[in-house]
Write a structure and sequence with these properties.
The chain is mostly helical. The chain has one domain.
């Protein structure tokens, strides 16, 4: 997703139904791989480095609108 902020990367990945621990592990793996290739900034959600109250993701409407007919959107 292209943002208005130069040098920021927003990567939205639908992984289906996973447990919170699986999501944490997937996020760490992706972050590690990104750090090896990209000079950009990113943030991965969810993360176990923040309290649950701060693991909040704002999905851009353009992406939600594109995917809202998909089966996974009913679980959001």
């Amino acid at each position: 997703y292209n943002t208005k902020t130069e040098g920021h990367l927003h990567l939205y990945i639908h992984k289906g139904h996973t447990t919170l621990q699986e999501a944490y592990q997937l996020g760490k793996t992706l972050s590690m791989k990104l750090s090896q290739r990209l000079p950009k900034q990113w943030r991965v959600f969810p993360t176990d480095e923040l309290p649950l109250e701060y693991n909040i993701l704002n999905l851009p409407y353009g992406i939600y609108e594109k995917e809202r007919g998909a089966a996974w959107s009913k679980h959001m």
